[in-house]
Amino acid sequence: MKASEASRNHLRADLVLLHQLWAEGVPSSEIANRFGVAYSTVTKWAQRYKLPRRTLHPADEPEAPTPEDDAASLDGLALSPWVEERAKVVRGKALRQQAARGAMQHAKQG
Fold first, then answer.
1. How many Cα atoms occupy the beta-carbon half-sphere of 106 within 13 Å?
2. 67: how many CB neighbours lie within 10 A of its CB?
3. Is 0.70 topped by the overall pTM?
4. Whole-number pLDDT of residue 16
5. Is residue 73 part of a domain?
6. 42 & 12 share domain
7. 82 domain-assigned
8. Where are the alpha helices (DSSP H) in the chain?
9. Whole-angstrom Cα distance, residue 10 to residue 83?
C-alpha cells in the first residue's frame, strides 16, 4: 500500500469517527481532545463537512409547555364549544395535578 493511499484511509476513518461522535452529541471540546486538535479546528470541520448545528447545552432548550400553560393560553379566547370543553378538561387535569402535588408535599411535611 502506498503512503498516500494509507493517508487517505486514515483520513476516511477519522471522518467516520468525527461523524459518529458528532451524531452522539459528544461535546466539541471532547472531540478536540480525542483528535489532539484545538476546539476551533473542530468547529471548522463541522462547517466544512456540513455537520448539523447543535445547541451549546441541552439546558438552553426551551421547555415543553405544561398543562397549566396550555390552559392559561386559552383564557379569554372565543372558542368553539368543542374547544371550550377540551379547555375545561385540560384545566381540570392541571388543577388535579396541582392538588396532588400539594397533598404529597403536605404528607412529606406532616
1. 6
2. 17
3. no
4. 85
5. yes
6. yes
7. yes
8. 3-23, 28-35, 39-48, 67-74, 81-109
9. 60
Amino acid code (one letter) for 102: G
Average per-residue pLDDT in the chain? 75
Those residues with Cβ within 8 angstroms of residue 74's Cβ, 6 or more apart along the chain or in another chain: 83, 87, 90
Write out the three cell numbers for 36. 489532539
Which residue stretches of the chain have pLDDT < 70?
1-10, 55-84, 110
Instruction: Give the pLDDT confidence of 61-89 residue by residue, as tens digits.
Output: 556 555 555 555 555 555 566 666 777 77
Amino acid at the residue 33: N
Residues 6+ apart with CB under 8 A from 19: 49, 51
89 part of a folded domain: yes
The Cβ of residue 104 has, within 10 Å, a number of other Cβ atoms equal to 10
DSSP 108: H
